[in-house]
């Protein structure tokens, strides 16, 4: 069964939006999805690849479904909603959730969305709650900017990621919640984007809104792998979520729109992303944890993240990105079975002066790539800071990045590994890598990095060559 998310950009009128405005800050953020779970779908059939190989590894084992269904169940029609694709149902959804909130300590509640096209602006969820989309239900984000309130920026970013000030609230929003489920049967979440306010060639917005934001969520949650279509969330949602699963998900975003990340775990822990297909104008999966001094102060790392069997394409960015907003730290990330094609990079670690933070214990294995400009890249120097308060002495620490079992065809150039002067970029281990690179671009570019490489073609840079017969990298 094919599960898809369709993102469509909202064009500025007449002359279009300047590129500097970075029109879309839409992404799927794992911190966001920390809200979500699906207690009744645990026994649903797996996707086709899992049927073919029932012994395939899964990282979803920490999830345990609820033992009993929600006590109170209502239809959104009970609160006056109309599923004709034209009537605004914002107040109906808000009224429904306010009513169901009273059942939070009385067995929980469920709001059903029947077949139809349900146009709505933003509304909040509540704890011990399920939002269930029946077969054929479609939730559409309202095109009226007045239905998207502006709220405070995330503490770990200090401001809206794209602009100074606050940010538009998410379409389906949650803050400080636990035990929240969003699920459905052959249903869709927004297939239209949220509007910008445009006049002539100028488009104005505070910070681009998102789909679901789970801020400071707790307990074990899961998002349905096959029966729910998807979430659109902002790139910078440092949601502090934990115990999250995204499985068998298809995300289709505009390939040439900026900031249409696929999935972003941001300040999130115990995250499982597996068997997903993504087309995006930005990173397919990007691991983040806050921006410069704000991320350092909040100090909420992204940790214990498994990304398994993800495939897709992004013409301008990377299959797996870490950073560049990683100031709260990133630790214990495992990537297995990545397949990327027609992309700028397969793996990219992005840092900068002023970020601080750390990236440690990252393992990437079984990577396949075709027609990639730069297969493996460490990059720096984006000069991208929230305000003038960033500390030029705050340097990142990168330690223990292992990359193994890589095959690349029609690769544009050899890996580019650019560290930062006086920063720690050490214990890089690269093994069993074969890249078929254009003849004029076979030389690695390395600066301010140290480590080891074995069974690598083309020949790695001097910084990664070791003459030792006993090596922590070879034996790891």
UniProtKB/TrEMBL annotation:
UniProt keyword annotation of Hydrolase present: yes
Keyword field contains Membrane: yes
Superkingdom assignment: Eukaryota
Regions crossing the membrane: 21-41
Entry's Gene Ontology BP terms: carbohydrate metabolic process
Annotated GO MF terms: polygalacturonase activity
Keywords on record: Glycosidase, Hydrolase, Membrane, Transmembrane, Transmembrane helix
Cited InterPro entries: GH28_Enzymes, Glyco_hydro_28, Pectin_lyas_fold, Pectin_lyase_fold/virulence
Family statement drawn from the similarity comment of this UniProt entry: Belongs to the glycosyl hydrolase 28 family.
Name of the protein in its database record: Polygalacturonase
Lineage: Eukaryota, Viridiplantae, Streptophyta, Embryophyta, Tracheophyta
């Amino acid at each position: 069964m094919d599960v898809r998310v369709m993102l469509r950009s909202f064009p500025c009128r007449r002359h279009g939006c300047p590129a500097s405005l970075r029109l879309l800050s839409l992404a799927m953020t794992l911190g966001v999805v920390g809200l979500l779970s699906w207690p009744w779908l645990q026994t649903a059939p797996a996707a086709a690849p899992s049927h073919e190989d029932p012994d395939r590894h899964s990282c979803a084992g920490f999830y345990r479904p609820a033992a009993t269904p929600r006590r109170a169940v209502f239809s959104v029609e009970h609160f006056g909603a109309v599923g004709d694709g034209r009537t605004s149902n914002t107040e109906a959804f808000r009224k429904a959730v306010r009513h169901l909130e009273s059942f939070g300590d009385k067995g929980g509640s469920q709001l059903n969305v029947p077949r139809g096209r349900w146009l709505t602006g933003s509304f909040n969820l509540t704890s011990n709650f399920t939002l269930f989309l029946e077969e054929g239900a479609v939730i559409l984000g309202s095109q009226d900017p007045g239905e998207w309130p502006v709220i405070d920026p995330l503490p770990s970013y200090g401001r809206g990621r794209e602009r100074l000030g606050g940010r538009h609230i998410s379409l389906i929003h949650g803050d400080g919640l636990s035990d929240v489920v969003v699920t459905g049967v052959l249903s869709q979440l927004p297939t239209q984007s949220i509007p910008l306010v445009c006049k002539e060639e100028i488009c104005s917005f505070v910070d681009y809104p998102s789909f679901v934001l789970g801020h400071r969520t707790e307990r074990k949650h899961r998002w349905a792998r096959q029966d729910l279509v998807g979430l659109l969330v902002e790139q910078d949602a440092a949601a502090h979520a934990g115990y999250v699963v995204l499985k068998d998900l298809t995300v289709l975003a505009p390939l040439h729109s900026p900031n249409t990340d696929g999935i972003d775990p941001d300040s999130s822990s115990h995250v499982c992303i597996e068997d997903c297909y993504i087309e995006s104008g930005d990173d397919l999966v990007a691991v983040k944890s806050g921006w410069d001094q704000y991320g350092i102060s909040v100090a909420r790392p992204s940790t214990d993240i498994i990304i398994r069997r993800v495939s897709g394409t992004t013409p301008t960015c990377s299959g797996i990105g870490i950073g560049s907003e990683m100031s709260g730290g990133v630790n214990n990330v495992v990537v297995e079975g990545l397949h990327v094609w027609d992309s700028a990079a397969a793996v990219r670690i992005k840092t900068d002066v002023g970020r601080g933070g750390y990236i440690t214990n990252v393992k990437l294995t079984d990577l396949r790539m075709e027609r990639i400009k730069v297969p493996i890249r460490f990059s720096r120097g984006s000069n991208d800071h929230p305000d003038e308060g960033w500390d030029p002495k705050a340097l990142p620490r990168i330690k223990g990045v292992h990359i193994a079992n890589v095959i690349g065809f029609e690769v544009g150039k050899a890996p580019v590994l650019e560290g930062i002067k006086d920063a720690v970029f050490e214990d890089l281990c690269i093994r069993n890598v074969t890249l078929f690179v254009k003849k004029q671009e076979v030389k690695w570019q390395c600066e301010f990095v140290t480590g080891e490489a074995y069974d690598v073609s083309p020949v790695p840079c001097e910084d990664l060559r070791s003459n030792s017969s006993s090596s922590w990298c070879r034996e790891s």
